[in-house]
Amino acid sequence: MEYQLCNLTVKKGQKINGFLQMPFTDEALPTTIIYGKEEGETVLITGGIHNAEYVGIECVTGLARDLRPEDVKGILILVNIVNINGFRARTVSVSKEDGKNLNRVFPGNPEGTFTDKLAYFMEKELFSRADYYIDVHNGDWFEDLTPYIYCAGNAKPEVAAKAEAMAKEADVRFYIKSNGSTGAYNYAGIIGVPSVLLERGGKGIWTSEEVQASQKDVRNILRCLGVLTTPKEMQYRIPNYMSHAHYLDSHSEGCWFPARDAGDTVMKGELIGYLKDYFGNIIEEIRMDEDGVILYQTISYSVPKGSPLVAYGHYGECIEGRIHE
Fold first, then answer.
1. What is residue 297's three-state secondary structure?
2. Which of 59, 115, 176, 309 is the most buried (most CB within 10 A)?
3. Model-level pTM?
4. In this predicted model, what pLDDT tens digit does every residue of 16-36 receive, in sequence order?
């Protein structure tokens, strides 16, 4: 028995590595397919949606290398680096060809530019094959981040419930049920695939400890889905449900001076950073308008106008009129 994904074919009980060809470009995605000895669910795992998020890329690459068909029940599709052209070019967050953020263009467009076509390819060739989806991220080179996990909430109740169960397997402080429509995992949820996005690491670096922690989380999620048959690894904490996440953006361009760290608990009215102009004058103070926890924040000195400075999560009700992700 064989399983075929575009140009790649794997036999039952085997694992293959290869480059997944796409019809609109000569670029190809480094991909591993593991077909277990027993039938079961199909799980898609991706790294490198954002091409400078190295913890996620190394996490998926290591899993692809180490997981064995004899321990798998079903099929695993692991795409090590989705935004491979941006990875090679060392661009940040965006594709080389058109400067677009892949995680902001779903469902994509077969008549659009490169990134639009890549998102469309993912939907038609990858999401359509998957029963579940795990997207492994981390903070980009300009972001500091505390480990947490999103699950797709903008989905049918049974899909959202399965995604939430997946998120609870991660050994992180928080999980957040996203009501957004952008992003690969959110769009996969919308079309019926229970999906999560794991966040750990950042600042343009990676460590073996962060990679190993993310790999453990992915393996435990696979075990809860019945796809990985090895014993569950120790989960030291069950993530708390954080009901909302919000983003504070800059009103001006300038130089950013964060006053707190990712993971800090911050109170309403507290100063969390400020912007200076190019003459060293403070032009904007960023203060909390409600209590929360900093999930990730910009650490780049240079900040464009209208760019995210801080993402924070909180419990309870939102401020009236505020849209949460």
1. strand
2. 59
3. 0.95
4. 999 999 999 999 999 999 999
The Cβ-side half-sphere exposure at 107, using a 13 Å CA radius, reads 10
The predicted-structure confidence for 292-322, as pLDDT tens digits, reads as follows 999 999 999 999 999 999 999 988 776 655 5
Structure tokens at 93: 């967050």
For the cut 70, the answer to whether the pLDDT of residue 243 exceeds it is yes
Over the range 65-79, which residues count as b (16 or more CB within 10 Å of their CB) and which as e?
A: eebebebbbbbbbbb
Task: Give the bridge partners for 183, in sequence order.
Answer: none
Q: Which among 130, 239, 268, 137 has a CA at the least distance from the CA of 193? A: 130
Supply 267's token pair. 């109170």
Name beta bridge partners: 8.
5
3-class DSSP state for residue 32?
strand
Please check whether residue 286 is in contact with residue 246, taking contact to mean a CB–CB distance below 8 angstroms: no
- Is residue 239 over pLDDT 60? yes
Which residue reads 């998120």 in tokens? 167
Tell me the β-bridge partners of 110: none
* Structure token digits, residue 153: 């909430």
**Is 229 in a helix, a strand, or coil?**
coil
User: Cα separation of 71 and 10, whole Å?
Assistant: 16
* SS3 assignment, position 13: coil
- CA 31, CA 33: separation in Å to the nearest integer? 7
